[in-house]
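Researcher: Next entry in the queue.
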Amino acid sequence: MSFKERLERGFPVFKQMLSRRTPFIRQAIVSGGAAGNIAVAGIKAGDQLVSVIESADSSAAITDRTAQFVANTDDWIVREDGFINNAGGSSTANDDLLVTWIAWAE
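Model: Structure for this entry, 106 residues:
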């Protein structure tokens, strides 16, 4: 019996840990826009949004916009490949956004 098999037998939770996918932290700097869908290359449905930070080009002000993209705990999960959404939030037009998320490996 291999070491891995002994661990799985002796510690059932270890078997669950081995079966989970490995998470990766990803970041992208994207152009802001009107409130609504913001395109983010590489983000996929099911990924978990961590933060959205706005950098205003005109004033160099830094603003945490995460709360606008995460209205409730279910919204931490990205719903659509390639997009995050802040419907009803502030416009980020002419600014850059630093988007951080957890991508789950296939």
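Model: Residues 21-104 form one domain.
Researcher: Noted, moving on.
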